[in-house]
Amino acid sequence: MNDINMLIPENFSVDEVTEFREKVNTLISNGEKHFVLNFSNCTFIDSTGLGVLVGIYKKCMELNGSLKLHSLNQQVMKVFKLTRLDKIFDIQI
Fold this sequence. Notes:
Blueprint: E1 4-7, E2 11-12, H1 14-29, E3 34-38, E4 44-45, H2 47-62, E5 66-70, H3 74-82, E6 90-92
């Protein structure tokens, strides 16, 4: 079981998420189901970005896979806490 490591863009918002979602969906279609998302460059996430992450999470769980988030800065972590998604995702700071 190898994790696929992916870097989240600086602004994970409506302009950036489509390409990212397509990449992940292609990987899932090819049999991948374990992902580690690196937020070290990410300084902003909006509701579209959160929605994409929830969709990826659901697909991974359906396939008995995993989704881990790490290196979230305080501002991005605040969004996860406000939306209570910090209770859903495996977040490693």
